[in-house]
Amino acid sequence: MDLFNPEIDETTNLLPKDGTVNYYGKLFSRENSNHYRDILLNTIEWRNDEAIIFGKLIITKRKVAWYGDSPFEYTYSNTTKKALPWTKELLELKTIIEEKTGETFNSCLLNLYHSGDEGMAWHSDAEKDLKKNGAIASVSFGAERKFAFKHKDTKETVSLILEHGSLLVMKDTTQTHWLHRLPPTKTISKPRVNLTFRTIVSQ
């Protein structure tokens, strides 16, 4: 099922079962979206992401950064990152997202996709460091990209376009029952910055 309806209702659950995903559409004006995109591109401490797969270190073209309330350690793909202190702009965005969603977050994982050639394979955000069934708020700046969900058992899929300045929230049992991905595309040459605000449980 594809969801490209311009009439957006943030209370609608995009998933048919076993989880909750709400799309808020464009939360920021084009001017503000451009402002945050440019600042994040130039001020975040971007690093190429690393993963250990079948014992081999893989370094991605995609870049990442990890920020939080304290130097949280976050482990995924068999590698561990330590959170950096919040920047002014990240705190601004966190406050806006918390007020809009009614959720609270203590960290943010950022991804920089330089073009449509870079994407993310099917996965779920269910690492032990994350609050179980907690909300993950995904904010997008830059190139509009397709985002897809696939049910782990039924293989049913749901997809939508994440717009410049938009907000998507995944919560409840979504990560338990659904995979998600950002498919690569040859038609997009501009960068996309994605912020995923999360809650790390006490360590």
From TrEMBL:
Pfam families reported for this sequence: 2OG-FeII_Oxy_2 (PF13532)
A GO biological process held by the record: methylation
Cofactor needs: Fe(2+)
Domain of life: Bacteria
GO MF terms held by the record: catalytic activity, acting on DNA; demethylase activity; dioxygenase activity; hydrolase activity; metal ion binding; methyltransferase activity; oxidoreductase activity, acting on paired donors, with incorporation or reduction of molecular oxygen
Entry annotated with the keyword Transit peptide: no
Gene3D superfamilies: Alpha-ketoglutarate-dependent dioxygenase AlkB-like
Signal sequence, renumbered to the chain: none
Annotated ranges, domain Fe2OG dioxygenase: 104-201
SUPFAM superfamilies, per the entry: Clavaminate synthase-like
Keywords on record: Dioxygenase, DNA damage, DNA repair, Iron, Magnesium, Metal-binding, Methyltransferase, Oxidoreductase, Transferase
InterPro entries: AlkB-like, AlkB-like_sf, ALKBH3, Oxoglu/Fe-dep_dioxygenase_dom
PANTHER family: ALPHA-KETOGLUTARATE-DEPENDENT DIOXYGENASE ALKB HOMOLOG 3
Protein name: Alpha-ketoglutarate-dependent dioxygenase AlkB
Lineage: Bacteria, Pseudomonadati, Bacteroidota, Flavobacteriia, Flavobacteriales
